[in-house]
């Protein structure tokens, strides 16, 4: 049996089999998935028994150094017991989406305090609550700055207020990069949100949309620039005024 066009396209993007790739689980978190062989439209794979189940959706994100690439979606059709920690999996390819380095939607630059609650995390306890500072928001994603180190696939609930608008949404972490003062900038995609809150994000993005770099959207940097401008203003006010009138 020849694989269908979607599966053939996915195979052309994946490394030669057998191979191991990192996938994001719909249940939260990431893990290594071993792709062993293909037969028709079916892909044989191996995954940790504690992290897989029938019907689970997985996503592999293949990116180059420019941030461009493809998202490949898999569904676990069946799982079979094997010796050791891994189960034999039968996978279907259920999605193939091209991604470019440009943002899918404009984002509003913000610098607002918010509360994050852990729903799933590799290195943090469930329901742990901590403060973050939002950097930008969009109908499909957001970024914030925190002292904590979050992992790709972690899921958090964000509770914020921007102006007079209360907002709450669930965010799956896509990446974490170092920020200033030992903090981390966490970016992710929104996985659950009320329609009213998504509408608020659409309005914010339209009114305050930004396509600047990540550094330009970093609230810590914005604060430093604002403080520097304020200091310049204060310094100029303190400067002595000389009487230029002839004595």
Fold and architecture overview:
By secondary structure, the protein is an alpha+beta fold. The chain has two domains: 5-99, Pnp Oxidase, Chain A (Roll); 107-232, Thrombin, subunit H, CATH 2.40.10.220. Helices cover 19% and strands 47% of the residues. The protein contains four helices and 14 strands. It has helices at 5-13, 195-208, 214-217, 219-238; strands at residues 19-25, 30-39, 42-48, 57-63, 69-80, 86-99, 107-109, 113-120, 129-137, 141-146, 155-162, 165-178, 184-193, 209-210. The strands form two sheets. A six-stranded antiparallel β-barrel has the order 1-2-3-6-5-4. It has a six-stranded antiparallel beta barrel with strand order 8-9-10-13-12-11. A hairpin with a 5-residue loop joins β12 (165-178) and β13. The longest helix has 20 residues, at 219-238. The chain is elongated. It starts with a helix and ends in a 9-residue tail after the last helix. The relative contact order is 0.12.
């Amino acid at each position: 049996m020849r694989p269908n066009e979607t599966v053939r396209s996915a195979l052309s993007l994946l490394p030669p089999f057998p191979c191991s790739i990192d996938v994001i689980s719909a249940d939260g978190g990431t893990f290594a998935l071993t792709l062993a062989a293909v037969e028709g439209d079916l892909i044989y794979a191996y995954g940790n028994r504690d992290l897989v189940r029938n019907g689970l959706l997985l996503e592999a994100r293949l990116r180059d150094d420019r941030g461009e690439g493809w998202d490949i979606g898999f569904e676990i059709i069946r799982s079979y017991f094997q010796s050791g920690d891994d189960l034999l999996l039968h996978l279907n390819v259920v999605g193939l989406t091209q991604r470019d380095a440009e943002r899918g939607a404009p984002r509003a630059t913000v610098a607002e305090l918010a509360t994050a609650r852990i729903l799933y995390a590799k290195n943090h306890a469930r329901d742990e609550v901590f403060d973050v500072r939002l950097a930008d928001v969009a109908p499909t994603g957001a970024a914030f700055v925190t002292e904590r180190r979050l992992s790709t696939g972690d899921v958090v609930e964000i509770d914020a207020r921007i102006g007079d608008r209360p907002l709450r949404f669930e965010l799956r972490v896509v990446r974490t990069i170092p920020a200033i003062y030992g903090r981390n900038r966490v970016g992710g995609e929104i996985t659950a949100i009320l329609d009213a809150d998504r509408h608020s994000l659409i309005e914010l993005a339209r009114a305050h949309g930004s396509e600047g770099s990540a550094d330009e959207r970093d609230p810590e940097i914005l604060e430093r620039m604002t403080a520097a401008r304020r200091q310049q203003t204060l310094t100029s006010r303190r400067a002595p005024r000389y009487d230029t009138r002839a004595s």
